[in-house]
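G., the chain you wanted modeled:
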Amino acid sequence: MAAADLPKQMRSAQWTTVPIESSLKVSETPLPKNADSLPKDSALVKISYASINPVDYKVPELGLARYAAMGSGPWTPASDYAGTVVSTNLPHVKPGDKVAGCTPVPKFGTLAEYAVVEGAANVTKLPDGVSLKDAATLPVAAQTAMQCLAPNVKKGSKVIIHGASGGTGTFGIQIAKILGCSVTAICSGPNVELCKSLGADEVIDYKSSDVTEELKKGGLQYDLVVDNVATGGPIYTQSHQFLKETGQYVTIAAAPNLSSVFSMVKTMALPGLLGGGKRKAGFVGRKPDSEELIKLAGWIKDGSMKPYIEKEYTLDESADAFKRLKSGRTRGKLVIKVSED
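Predicted structure as tokens:
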């Protein structure tokens, strides 16, 4: 489709009050205001699939602070996407290319048939043979997992993944195995077999076992803890009993509120005697990286990695998708089909 052939309206899911799912409705809305006059380094993309992540509701549900971050509503949620370039001023893609990426937070906007995506690193041309549905799951969850693991491990490293059955966790298991690591996954009983099927060497059911006691049994053997659930807590404060002195604890589990900030400070700054941990700790916030996304898509193409998708929703079912995501019991990823490829 050429830019000149664009419709005047598009279908989009928009919300006006929180929680998001209480007011999220699909309607005909105007195309993005800059669709016919693109900002520098951007592309107009016809969205085929979106994938939702906790950040997609945590930032919007900040309270009055959301107005400072996002302006006035109504708002279109979600940031992960995969689709087709309609028009662009980026040098590395052209109309018709299949692309994936993530709109910068807090712009969101991918639960709509069209979105203007700004930034070269947020528009990645996909290799042939990778479906748009699979590609939409990669930008936040898989790249976050990759950025937790790749800088901190080498072949033969032993890794603990806490929260192993969610979106980032299911990618984390597979990426760690591709990088040559041994993986101990922590999840609930119903997800044990899922984690094993993705390659976990050992799985601890946190509902039937004392996780830290199980980890202590092997002594100082682990090189990295990736925490997708908590900022600190017993897994960190007790990590000196199972994490090597050279090992590291990293977490992605930060929320944009004072409680989370305090927990991060306590985890990463306080010495052990004052309630902090005794191992190096860090927070990983996903950074856009086109080359990395291409590598991840390549692993899907060659069969090394497969997104675990719990369910595909229609655009009209977006509110149901957010309800499921907020339940905290999602296995792998949730995707939303926004329009036909």
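The two ends are 12 Å apart (CA to CA).

Shout if anything looks off.
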